[in-house]
What we know:
Strand content: 15-25%
Helix content: 25-40%
Radius of gyration: 21 Å
Amino acid sequence: MSTLLVKNIQTLITCDDGDRILHNVDLFAQDGFIQAIGPNLPHTAGTVLDGTHFWCYPGLVNTHHHLYQVFSRNLPQVQNLELFGWLTALYEIWKGLDRDVVRLSSLTGMGELLKHGCTTCFDHHYVFPQGAGDLIGVQLEAAEVLGIRMVSSRGSMDLSRKDGGLPPDSVVQTVDQIMKDSARVVEAYHDPRPGSMRQIVLAPCSPFSVSAELLRQSAVVARQYGVRLHTHLCETKDEEAYMLERHGIRPLEYMARLGWTGPDVWYAHGIHFNSEELRELARTGTGVAHCPISNMKLSSGVARVPEMLALGVPVGLAVDGSASNDGSSLMEELRVCYLLHRLHSSAAAPSGYQVLKIATRGGARLLGRTDIGALEEGRCADFFLVDSRRLELVGGEYSPADVLATVGLRGPVDHTVVHGRVVVRDGRLTTIDEAATAQAARACCKAYLDRA
C-alpha cells in the first residue's frame, strides 16, 4: 500500500463540478487515489510533502502529440513550410524511425511534459517503418519508467505517394496488416480500469493518408474492443480542397459517413469547421484537441474554440508534435491559448481559469476518463504544485485559478505527482537521470538525422 500526504496546501484549485477553490487544506492519497481533502487531516503517510505557500492544480492532460517528432524539431529547412510541404519533407526523416529513436524521443518529450505539470499524455503514433518492431510497446515502457499516465495510439497509414497520399511506401501498411496489429496492441496493452496507467486508441493518421476502408474498419474494431478513435481533421484549407476534389464532400461529412462521429471520437486541430459542422460536433459529442502553437507555426489558422465551448463541443488542449511546436510544454500552451483567443474573440474568449479547465477536465473528457482532470475524493492523485513565492509570480497571486494562463509560468513546476507518486521534485524528474538521458538522446538524435 502506498500513501501520500500533502500538508497545509495554501490554495487548491479543484476544477471540480462546483469549481471549488480550497485554502489551507491537506490532501491524502492511498494507492494512487485521493481519499480525503480537508484541513488538519489525521492521516499519516509514507510520503509527505509540505504544501505551505504552494498552489495545487489537477494534472494537465495532453490530448494530441507525436513524441517521435522530438528528434526532428527546429530544423531550418522546414521552418517556413505549411502542412503538406512540411509533411512531405519530414517523412524522409521519419521513415528512419527505430526502437531507440522512439524510446529516447518518448523519454525526452514526456519528461518535458511532466516537468511542466502534465500528468497524462496521449500520443498519436502512426509511422511504422518496415521491420521497426513493436514501437507502441517501446513507448509504453518509456512512460512506465517516467511514471506518466499514458494513452498510446495504434495509428496507421495505407496511402503512399503512389496512391495519392504524402508518405513514402516504406511507412504505409495494408488494411489487413493494420487491423491485425491494432487488435494485437489493444489486447496486449489496453487497461480499461479506473486509474489505468496505459490505454490504447485506434488512430488512422488523416483522411489524406488513409483509405475509406481503413477508416471504416478502424471504427468497427475500436467499438468491438471499447476503445476510442482519433485522427487529424480540418487542419488546413489544403485538406479541405483535397477532400472536395477527391470525394466531393467536406472532411466532416466524409468522416461521418464512415462512422467517425460520436462521444468516443475526437479530432486533432479542427480549425476549418463551418458553423453547421460545429453544431453537428456538439450534437454528436465529437471532440476537438486544440493545438494553438502548432496551428500558428504551420500557418494553419485559428480554431473557433469560443464558439465550440458555447455550443458544448468537447474541447481539450494539446501540444501536437514537437516538430510543429518545437516543445512539449502544455503549460506554455495554456498561455498561448488564452492570448490567441483574447486577440481573436475579445470578451467571448475563455478566461484563464476556463483555459485551465480545457487542459484538465476537457482533456479527461476527450480521453473518456472520469478518474482524472479534477481534484476530489475518488479521483486519481494526479496534480502539480507551484510555489507562490516565485519572483515571477509577484503580483499574480490574486487569482491562482487564472494565473497559469494570464501571467504564465516560466520554467518547470516545483512538484508533479502521478497516481500518488512524486515524479518531479523541485523541478527535476525523480525517475531518471536527466543528464544521462539527455546525453543518450542527443547522440541517438544525431545518428538518426545523419542517416536521413
